Amino acid sequence: MNLNFDSEKPIYLQLAEEIEDAVLSGAYQEETQIPSTTEISVSYKINPATALKGINRLVDDGIVYKKRGVGMFVSTGAKEKILDKRKETFFEDYVTSMILEARKLSITQEDILKMLERGFEK
Amino acid sequence: MSYIEIKNITKVFGNTTALDNVSLNLEANKIYGLLGRNGAGKTTLLNLITNRIFPTYGEILLEGEKVSENDDALSKVYFMTEANFYPEGMTVKKAFKWTKEFYPGFDTDYASALCDKFLLKTGKKIKELSTGYKSIFKIIVSLACNAPVILLDEPVLGLDANHRELFYKELLQAYGERPRTIVISTHLIEEAADIIEDVIVIKSGKLILQDSVEKVLSQGYAVSGAASAVDGFMQGKKVLGVDTLGGLKTAYILEKAEKEKIPSGLEISKLDLQKLFIQMTNQ
Hints:
The structure holds 2 protein chains of 2 kinds. Chain A has helices spanning about 10-25, 35-45, 50-60, 80-105, 110-120; strands at about 65, 70-75. By secondary structure, chain A is mainly alpha-helical. Chain A has 2 domains: about 10-75, Orthogonal Bundle (Arc Repressor Mutant, subunit A); about 80-120. In chain A, helix 1 (about 10-25) crosses helix 3 and helix 2 (about 35-45) crosses helix 3 (about 50-60). Chain B has 2 domains: about 1-210, P-loop containing nucleotide triphosphate hydrolases (Rossmann fold, 3-Layer(aba) Sandwich), CATH 3.40.50; about 220-280, no CATH class. Chain B has helices at about 40-50, 70-75, 90-100, 110-120, 130-145, 160-175, 190, 215-220, 225-235, 275-280; strands at about 1-15, 15-25, 30-35, 55-60, 65, 75-80, 150-155, 180-185, 200-205, 205-210, 220-225, 240-245, 250-255, 265-270. Chain B has a 6-stranded mixed β-sheet, with helices on both faces. Chain B has a 4-stranded antiparallel β-sheet with strand order 2-1-4-5, with helices on one face. Chain B has a 4-stranded antiparallel β-sheet with strand order 12-13-11-14. Chain B is globular. Chains A and B meet through helix 2 and helix 3 of A and helix 6 and helix 8 of B.
């Protein structure tokens, strides 16, 4: 796992996405505990307030929840929620930026469709 | 509540004004980065907070009480300086014992655990330590003394990459277990940028910035492209500085980027703390 400190995205959002990825991959199973704010802060070398902000984002989205005195746990149904959310932003995250770059390079719609077909054949 | 209040501090040495009417508040349990070029006044400020030197004008309060002539307030602050205040012939082990006299909360077990991690031999005399290990010795004392405020002046001086990484991790671990106010003065901005919560920038004795790192970075961006296009774009904007490379120009702008208003052909990118610092403190 790695945060890209040069990315446009704030670190706390990258952290939230990393944890989501770990839930999607099954590394963090539903109803199991995720690392504490301190563990995250030490392992990524980021300020604990940043780590907390990333986790709070996941709490707001219902991906993780707090067990008082124990720590943070992955919610039941978290995987489903992440999939739904990612599908919603797929167009904005990938399609829009691809078309923008394609226009810059004068790649036509036809060319893109061909590339997509080629991509799926692999 | 502010833990430390620095009120209109001016410090004059002979005919040099090292600090010029600086006011700032440090909150409890926050990690601050104190940045400034060589000679900007960082160490002077830290020396004033710990009452090692006295302000020409102004005052400094710790938990609402003046730090001057106040031993109780000063026992709450540990200052790691470049200067060594331990007798040269003293061993590391003895120095730990001695520190405990001044800082009763000093955790000897934790200090020895850190010595093991950094491979510092406690039987060695302080004068026998290399530059890097002198820093490590002082880092260990700072982390183990359990003072509610620790001021670290160039803590990673002479440390190799592995030891710097270990230091940042141990600092965050110690902070996570027992939050305290930490001020890190450093020139290695890139390394510290994600560790600090708030940034303080001093330029030629004047405070020019104090804000959260995240807020500062979200308010600035770099825009690059053909020189003429960049020139047109930066009209009327708050420009910190520019770089040119042939016909390519990059302007550093201290405003929120309105992505939809960026003309095509111009690329915008995020400002990092180091770039921002260089642009703000260039003469």
